[in-house]
Amino acid sequence: MVAGVLLGCIADDFTGATDLANTLVRGGMRVVQTIGVPQRPPSENIDAVVVALKSRTIEPEQAVAQSLHALRWLRAAGARQIVFKICSTFDSTPRGNIGPVTEALMDELGCDLVIATPAFPDNGRTVFRGHLFVGDQLLSDSSMRDHPLTPMTDSNLVRVLQAQCRRRVGLIDYRCVAQGADSIRARMASLREEGFGLAVLDAVSNDDLMRAGPALRGAPLLTSGSGLAIALPANFGIAASEQAAVLPRASGAAAIVSGSCSVATQKQVAHFQRLGGRAFAIDPIAIAADGDSVLIKIIDRSVAALSSGPVLVYSTATADQVAATQARLGTNAAGAMIEQALARIAVALVESGVGRLIVAGGETSGACVQALALQELRIGPQIDVGVPWCHAEPVAGRSQGLHLCLKSGNFGGEDFFSRAFAVLDAQSRAEPAGFMHDAD
After folding, report:
1. Considering only 122-136, 314-328, 420-434, which range has the smallest mean pLDDT?
2. What angle do CA 20, 391, 247 make, to 5 degrees?
3. Per the structure, how many domains does the chain have?
4. Does residue 437 lie within any of the structural domains?
5. For residues 413 and 365, what is the distance between their CA atoms, to the nearest angstrom?
6. Phi and psi for 11 in degrees, rounded to 5?
7. In what order do the strands lie in the sheet with 125-128?
C-alpha cells in the first residue's frame, strides 16, 4: 500500500482541476480536489491532491502569489512531484498567466528545465512541431480564437510561451518523442546545456504521452494539461482501479447552470432544449438594469420547475451576442456580473433541494463553487472525456452532500447533460464501495 501524498497539483481553474483529477482517478490514484488552499493537512489514504484555483484570468502577480501559496501547502503535505495544470487549449494572454506562474514555481523549486504540454489527444488536443491543434484545426483557426477572455490567435506554443517568460523556451519535437523516454531525456539534457529553461513537448497521441511519462519520473515540476496525467500514476507504482471512482449514492433534484459560451456548450444547451428540458435564459442587459428583480424571477421559475425533471439556467450565447453585451457593459464587468448571477442561482437551487448539479464553464464553475462554500471534492466516475462527477460533503443545509459536475466549456458531446445524469444514476443503483485501492 502506498502511503502519503505522492502528487501535488495546482490547477488554474476549477473545471481544469476536475479534469486532471478525473484522469488520475482513472489511473488508479485516490484523489481529492480542494477548493483553494486548505487550512488543514490533507485527508489520509490519498495519493494525489489537486488544489483548484481561480487564477487563469486574474492579474499575473495575483496568479503567482496564489500558486506559490498552493505549492508551499503541497510541499508541506509531502508531495514528491508538482503539476501546474493548464488548459488543453493553452488559455492565456501575452502577459500570462502560464509563463509567469511556471517560472515562479521553478524559482521556488530550484528547477532548471520544465516540460510544458497542453496535449490531450483523447479530446482532440494535440501538439505537432510546437503548434497546438484542436481536432484538425490549428488552435488559431478554432472557436478559441473568439474566446471572450483568452482569445488564442497564435497556435505556436513556443512563441506564445516565450512572450511570457524570462527563460528561453525550446521544443522537444515529435521525432524525438517517437523514439521513447531515453531520447526525450537526452533532448532535455541538451536543452539544459544550451541554456533553455522551458520546453514545449510534442504529443499527437496517448502513446506519445506514455513515452514521455518515464522520462519525467522524478521531475520536480511539470506544466501540462490533464492529458499527460495518464502517464503519471505508473511512475508511483499505481495501476488502474474502478474503486477509486466510487461515490456515495446521489439524491435530490437535478439542475444545470451554464455560463460557457463555447460552441460545444451552445450545442449542449440546444440539445437539452430540443429534448423538451425546462430551460431559463438570463439576459445580462436586463440584469444590469434591474438585477435583483430579474434574478428573483428566474430563481422562482427554475425552482418551481424542479419537480418535473432537470432544469437548465444559462447565459450561454453566440460570439456575436457576447460581443454585443461586452460592447454595452464592458468585457470584465459583463463577465463578473454573469458569474455572480449564476452563482447566486446555483446557491438558491441547492438550497431548494438540488442534489445533482452540473456547472458548465470554467469561470462559472469557480464562482459557483466559491458561492456554495465548498472546500473539498471527491472525484468519481467519468461522464465524458475529461469530465467526472464529484461529491462534496453536506452544504447549504443539505444533510446528504452534493453531487457536482464542473464541465469545461469546450468538453462533452451534444447529449452531455442527459448522459451525465444517467451515469450518476447508474452508479447510485450499485452498492457503494470503499475509496481505496491496492498498490505495490
Report:
1. 420-434
2. 95
3. 2
4. no
5. 19
6. -105, 140
7. 125-128, 131-134, 137-138
- 327 or 104, higher pLDDT: 104
**Same-domain status, 253 and 167:** no
Q: Examine residue 39 and state whether it is found in any structural domain, yes or no.
A: yes
**Whether residues 192 and 298 fall in one domain:** no
Using one digit for the tens of pLDDT, what is the confidence trace for 277-289?
Answer: 999 999 889 998 8
pLDDT digits (tens, 9 = 90+) for 221-262: 999 999 999 999 999 999 988 777 788 899 999 999 999 999
pLDDT, tens digit, for every residue of 363-416?
Answer: 899 899 989 988 889 888 889 988 889 999 876 555 678 999 999 888 899 999
Give the SS3 label for residue 368.
helix
Do 167 and 254 sit in the same domain of this protein?
A: no
Helix (H) or strand (E) holding 194: none
Burial of 373 (0-12, 13-18, 19+ CB in 10 A): exposed
Q: Are residues 305 and 400 in the same domain?
A: yes
Cα–Cα distance, 227 to 202 (Å, whole number): 12
| Pair 215, 278 in one domain | no
**What are the contacts of 33-38 at 24+ separation with CB within 8 A?**
33/376, 33/377, 33/378, 33/379, 33/390, 34/375, 34/376, 34/377, 35/369, 35/370, 35/374, 35/375, 35/376, 35/377, 36/375, 37/66, 37/69, 37/70, 37/73, 38/73, 38/375, 38/376
Over range 201-215, report the average pLDDT. Answer: 98
The domain boundary residue, chosen from 240, 275, 298 = 240
259 and 173 in a common domain:
no
Q: Summarize pLDDT for 325-367 with one digit per residue, the tens.
A: 989 899 888 888 999 999 999 999 999 999 999 999 988 998 9
Provide the pLDDT for residue 399.
64
**Residue 438 included in any domain:** no
Asked whether the beta carbons of 316 and 360 are under 8 A apart, the reply is yes
| Mean pLDDT value of segment 44-57 | 91
pTM of model > 0.70: yes
Choose the final residue of a domain: 191, 216, 240: 240
Whether 1 is in a domain gets the answer no
Q: Which domain holds residue 52?
A: 7-240
Q: Who has greater pLDDT, 18 or 113?
A: 113
**CATH number of the domain that residue 199 is part of:** 3.40.50.10840
d(CA 174, CA 212): 11
Residues 259 and 120 in one domain: no
Looking at the structure, tell me whether residues 157 and 259 fall in a common domain: no
Q: What is the full DSSP assignment across 157-185? A: HHHHHHTT-SSEEEEE-HHHHHT-HHHHH
